[in-house]
Design goal:
This protein is an all-beta fold. Helices cover 0% and strands 35% of the residues. Strand 1 and strand 2 form a beta hairpin. Keywords: Metal-binding, Zinc.
Length: 48
């Protein structure tokens, strides 16, 4: 199993990058790691 994951990272307005990042670890009892299988956007999201 890989120790990295693909992630979209927000750096600021008009600056979102697709990167390989370390897989987050659960450190606290109330932490959660969520694996997304599908993600979509609405056409109005493009104007935001």
């Amino acid at each position: 199993m890989s120790n990295t994951m693909k992630a979209m990272v927000y750096y600021g307005a008009n600056d979102i990058r697709f990167e390989e990042r370390p897989i987050p670890k659960i450190l606290q009892p109330d932490d959660a790691v969520i694996k997304l299988t599908k993600v979509t956007i609405c056409g109005t999201d493009l104007g935001i």
